[in-house]
Write a structure and sequence with these properties.
The protein has one domain. With 256 residues, the chain is of the alpha+beta class. Helix 4 packs parallel to helix 6 and helix 5 packs across helix 6. Helix content is 31%, strand content 21%. Strands 1-2-3-4-10-8-7-6 form an eight-stranded antiparallel sheet.
């Protein structure tokens, strides 16, 4: 996983499947080019997203994640307002496409940079994405503001409140390690419907000053389909290896 963020009922049975079947499964549906975050959108080819991100700096290079096919990011630290943008990718046998983008920025008191103000950051978000779909304020536990979209990228005025519980950071682990055999009801809803942008505001002072914020954009139905392709391909490889072992055993006829 490559993220700094502290980053349905589905049970599938795969039988003997040929490689040609998985070649067909690699194709992912087209996604709208908006909404985007920093010009990068879910469904954008990895090479184009990386080139666009690199344009943010002529001195600091975009770095690959570990493993390299999981994503990349750019961290900029001028000692005043450190920021980072990170991109997570679909995994083989899918072609590498973006499914999750995050951007974070911090204010360092005494660092000489301008402070971050809640209302100013919210205004910038609303100017780009429109009025938020809903807000969840945990008081001292953080302020969360959501913009939810339909599959075409149109902003939704209302949405299922369950989508507040979608954990994109957890899904990045599923992308690498496989989907859960028994997803929770919340996960089922998220995997089916969550196409959204979430802004998290930390340590909001009484005067509206922020210590940091994070904005993340993810398309989980798109990511789910990619993760299914990855899981099915891995399962087919494992099954083939097991069948090859059985075949070798069947041919290993001892002499008595």
């Amino acid at each position: 996983m490559f993220s700094k963020i502290c980053f349905f009922a589905v049970v599938f049975l795969v039988g003997q499947v040929g490689l040609a079947s998985f070649a067909r499964a690699q194709s992912l549906p087209a996604t709208p080019h908006t909404p985007d975050l920093m010009g990068i959108y879910p469904g954008m080819p990895a090479s184009a997203a990386r080139a666009l991100l690199q344009k943010r700096s002529s001195t600091v290079n975009v770095l690959s994640a570990a493993p390299a096919d999981s994503g990349f990011g750019l961290s900029l630290n001028d000692g005043k307002n450190p920021e980072g943008t990170y991109v997570n990718l679909t995994r083989a046998p899918n072609d590498p496409f973006v499914w999750w983008i995050t951007r974070s920025q911090s204010y360092l008191p005494g660092g000489g940079g301008p402070p971050l103000m809640l209302n100013t950051v919210l205004t910038a978000l609303r100017e780009k994405y429109g009025k938020e779909t809903f807000t969840h304020d945990q008081g001292g536990g953080g302020l969360y503001v959501f913009w939810l979209f339909d599959p075409s990228g149109k902003l939704l005025a209302t949405a299922d409140q369950t989508l507040q519980g979608c954990n994109t950071g957890q899904f990045s682990l599923y992308m690498s390690n496989g989907l859960p055999p028994a997803p929770t009801q919340v996960e089922q809803t998220c995997f089916k419907s969550y196409f959204g942008l979430k802004a998290t505001f930390n340590n909001v002072a009484a005067n509206g000053m922020l210590s940091s914020y994070t904005v993340e954009l993810a398309n989980l139905p798109y990511a789910y389909r990619a993760a299914m392709n990855t899981a099915n391909a891995k399962n087919a490889v494992d099954q083939k290896a097991q069948q090859d072992l059985i075949n070798r055993g069947n041919q290993n006829k001892p002499t008595f």
